[in-house]
């Protein structure tokens, strides 16, 4: 976001005559869960954003023409991470409140939204999709694999507690700090720090999941005189879970080269089928099932 937008939006205003209450913010909060309900390729999440803002706009702009102008303002293209709509909503509510009471921020509102939606989308993807979901899913799946029926229940409970809690807190926080959010982000460089930290943590979690969940072993042995060399033991002595790691890298590489997931599943099935038949007819344990 350019300094010009920030500076132009900081104008003196009288004491607000219309004040947004916690009750109003709660209405915005409840409606924020439907931000993806009307997503489309023309304006993406704009209609969902406007639906969440509607109770506040109707209160701030009793004049129909002013209300129309405010609603048109929020029908501009908007797209971000679903969980990160709430801090942007809170900021937009604060700016609309200031504008309705003579603050003159109308021209800056969409600029602020555009400036926040991109960085916040990156945070949401890295922190929630790339880090939090694999961690919680891994915990739940590990419990389920051990026969504990609470695994999926725990995953859904923790996921939704964090979802509901973060949306509420971030909405109130965005409203409370308003315009200063962009300045704080620029000063602390929080976007880059959170994104990098979440990416590192996510990679660590995925590395653990690869070692625990991808069970690929070979029973091939080499006989050298009286000594027998077990290939799997030799690989584990160099790098534990080396075969699962190599397979994972291969699959990721194919996905990056636009190979479809369904095609990969079929290829993996065919390879496993061929190796199993080869082991049966030759007596060489190419793969070991445990």
Structure description:
- The chain is mainly alpha-helical.
- It has helices spanning about 5-10, 20-30, 45-60, 65-75, 85-105, 105-145, 150-175, 180-190, 190-215, 230-240, 240-255, 260-280, and strands spanning about 220-225, 225-230.
- The chain folds into 2 domains: about 5-205, no CATH class; about 220-280.
- It has a two-stranded antiparallel ribbon.
- Strand 1 and strand 2 (about 225-230) form a beta hairpin.
- Helix 1 (about 5-10) packs across helix 6 (about 105-145) and helix 6 (about 105-145) packs parallel to helix 9.
- The termini are far apart.
- About 25% of the residues are buried.
Which key phrases capture this entry?
290 residues; mainly alpha; 2 domains; two-stranded antiparallel ribbon; 12 helices
Question: Can you summarize this structure?
Answer:
The chain has helices spanning 3-9, 22-31, 46-60, 64-73, 85-103, 106-145, 150-177, 180-188, 190-213, 231-238, 242-256, 261-282; strands spanning 221-224, 227-230. It is an all-alpha fold. Strands 1-2 form a two-stranded antiparallel ribbon.
């Amino acid at each position: 976001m350019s300094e010009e937008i920030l500076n132009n939006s900081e104008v003196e205003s009288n004491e607000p005559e219309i004040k947004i209450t916690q009750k109003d913010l709660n209405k915005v909060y409840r409606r924020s869960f439907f931000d993806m309900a009307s997503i489309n390729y023309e304006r993406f999440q704009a209609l969902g954003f406007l639906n969440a803002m509607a109770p506040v706009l109707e209160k701030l702009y009793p004049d129909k023409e002013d209300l129309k102008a405010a609603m048109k303002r929020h029908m501009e293209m908007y797209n971000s991470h679903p969980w990160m709509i709430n801090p942007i909503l809170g900021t937009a509510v604060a700016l609309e409140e200031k504008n309705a009471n003579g603050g003159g921020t109308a021209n800056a509102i969409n600029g602020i939204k555009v400036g926040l939606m991109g960085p916040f989308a990156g945070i949401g993807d890295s922190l929630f999709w790339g880090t939090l979901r694999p961690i919680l899913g891994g915990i739940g799946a590990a419990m389920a694999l051990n026969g504990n029926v609470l695994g999926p229940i725990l995953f859904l409970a923790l996921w939704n507690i964090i979802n509901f809690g973060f949306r509420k807190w971030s909405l109130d926080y965005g409203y409370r700090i308003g315009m200063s959010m962009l300045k704080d982000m620029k000063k602390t460089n929080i976007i880059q720090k959170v994104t990098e930290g979440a990416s590192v943590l996510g990679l660590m979690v995925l590395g653990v999941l690869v070692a625990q969940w991808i069970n690929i072993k070979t029973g091939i042995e080499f006989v050298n005189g009286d000594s027998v060399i077990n290939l799997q033991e030799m690989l584990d002595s160099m790098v534990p879970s080396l075969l699962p790691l190599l397979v994972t890298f291969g699959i990721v590489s194919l996905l990056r080269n636009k190979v479809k997931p369904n095609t990969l599943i079929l290829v993996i099935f065919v390879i496993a089928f061929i190796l199993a038949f080869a082991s049966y007819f030759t007596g060489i344990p190419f793969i070991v099932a445990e």
